[in-house]
Write a structure and sequence with these properties.
The complex is a heterodimer of chains A (114) and B (108). With 114 residues, chain A is mainly beta. Chain A is built from no helices and 11 strands. In chain A, strands 2, 4, 5, 6, 9, 10 and 11 form a 7-stranded mixed beta sheet that branches. The chains are: A mainly beta (114), B mainly beta (108).
């Protein structure tokens, strides 16, 4: 089966600009996650969707970050405006069910904010 | 709040055995999982323990003691390709919380 797809793979923007990331999960996976991974740290959950509903977004900086999964399949994560501290890898993952410990990760988008 | 502790780095010799420990503090604990991440790559799932005891999958084994809030990942017959970061992660309710990771260096 095809894995989790993400684009773009790399993005460089200036602070205060906006950026969007796209994710297509594994077919049939109801749950989709967006993580932020800063260099040298573990992935930090930003938002978790079950189908097209939000399960957890407690760590999403809602003043600048937004995410949607309108049709319960692919998803976009947006940052507007970006700050220097947003430089990180943004990982999308999916799993068959909510809270599954076996998550499948995409290759990530490496964001550099200058 | 939740916290996970694992060593930041571990070094071992090719062909040897290495153990990576993880202690956790969390409410609503369901289980402990382990992920491997190579430089520039995505995390990949290795194992999950919901109950006490040892789970073996090939060269890798994972152990959990719920009463001690402790687990470990055991890697046997180390190969150079095992050089990577290893993350323990706890399942708390419907979400997974990752530790900061252990960087495994393997010497020839």
């Amino acid at each position: 089966e095809a894995g989790v797809a993400q684009s773009p793979r790399y993005k460089i923007i200036e602070k205060r600009q906006s950026v969007a990331f796209w994710c297509n999960p594994i077919s049939g996976h109801a749950t989709l996650y967006w993580y932020q991974q800063i260099l040298g740290q573990g992935p930090k959950l930003l938002i978790q969707f079950q189908n097209n509903g939000v399960v957890d977004d407690s760590q999403l900086p809602k003043d600048r970050f937004s995410a949607e999964r309108l049709k319960g399949v692919d998803s976009t994560l947006k940052i507007q405006p970006a700050k220097l501290e947003d430089s990180a890898v943004y990982l999308c993952a999916s799993s068959r069910t909510s809270g599954s410990s076996e998550q499948y990760f995409g290759p990530g988008t490496r964001l550099t904010v200058t | 709040g939740q916290s996970l502790e694992q060593p930041s780095e571990v070094t071992a010799v090719e062909g040897a055995i290495v153990q990576i420990n993880c202690t956790y503090q969390t409410s609503g604990f369901y289980g402990l999982s382990w992920y491997q991440q190579h430089d520039g790559g995505a995390p990949t799932f290795l194992s999950y323990n919901a109950l006490d005891g040892l789970e073996e999958t090939g060269r890798f084994s994972s152990f959990l003691s719920r009463s001690d809030s402790y687990g470990y990942l055991l890697l046997q017959e180390l190969q150079m390709k095992d050089s990577a970061s290893y993350f323990c992660a706890v399942r708390e309710d419907d979400k997974i919380i990752f530790g900061k990771g252990t960087r495994l260096h393997i010497l020839p």
